[in-house]
Input
Amino acid sequence: MTEVIGTILAFLAVLVVLILVHELGHFIAAKRAGITVQEFGIGFPPRIWSVVWHGTRYSVNAIPLGGFVKMLGEDGEVEAEKMRQRGLSEAAVDKAMAGAFNRKPVWVRFLVLLAGVVMNFLLATVLFAVAFSLPEPVAVTPVRVISIQDNSPAAEALLVGDRIIGADGKRFSRSKPLIDYIASRAGHPVTLNLARKGMPLNVSVTPRHLSDEQRAEGLGAVGFGLRSTIALAPARASGPIAAVQQGIAETATIAAQIPSGLGRALAGLLGLAPNEGGAMGPIGIAQVTGEVLQEPLYTQLYWVGLLSVNLAVLNILPFPPLDGGRLAVVGIEALRRRRLSARREALIYFTGFMVLMALVILITIQDIGRLPGV
Output
């Protein structure tokens, strides 16, 4: 139970940091642009505590799932319509909406909407840069066999406790190249060089060809679970400038890979590609976050940076009510040279929100199915 509570708290802490950094970007950009920021909240209502300072309410709320920035006019003309319904004149409405988000020039609204994404990219770059300045944990040989799958090549040749040092007489300093080499020899005999009870021994196995479905079920080419020794390699970056440069490059590389991965995951989620089921929702992310807590600081920083890049890319997708969807609405208004009606804009955001919630529910069901013992 203590471990579960720790995992939940760690996940919430990471989520709050990522979302608050994102919302801080919107907040700073909006304030600089003269937009009326009605509230900057940590967590989501109900409200626990708040204070009004310089026209903005700063609040701490009961649901610790991030935070929010509420700007006047961010939902289009909804607030203006309410004022008109209360009998205010058009001049009074215009005066009250002078600092409204939706009445600012298009380029200002674009910058404000992009600011949250930019902040997440910046956070990821900083986290990667710090991680690359630290000694990097790497899995090294020997690889210790900790479990063996039934009816597998390993069942005939290996014992739990065996330590694999190399293959076909080749020595590998790190675990991944060793495992990759063994898997690449599917269908061909491989001589595993190992130590059993302190004595050198060579055994022959023939790695099997696996389908994507078999891999998804957890089957391995040889069929054994392993544990590697973790050693610290020198830091990737030779200095602060190199660290920042590598942080930028890592952020860009990951960001470029996310759209295609998201497409495959979505296809798997909707049953269009049965072998693609990589979408991970809140439960899956929380589970991995709990596991990352046991890893070195390098891994922890890298994981949070990875999440920050994902949050940035997901938010820029042209899907309401995400930032990208709002950018698309602003773009449509710029092309039409007039604002959308309050009702139409509200319908767009509501529809997008419902579709988004449906996807989250589907992903969460998938996450639950992956939990141990489920």
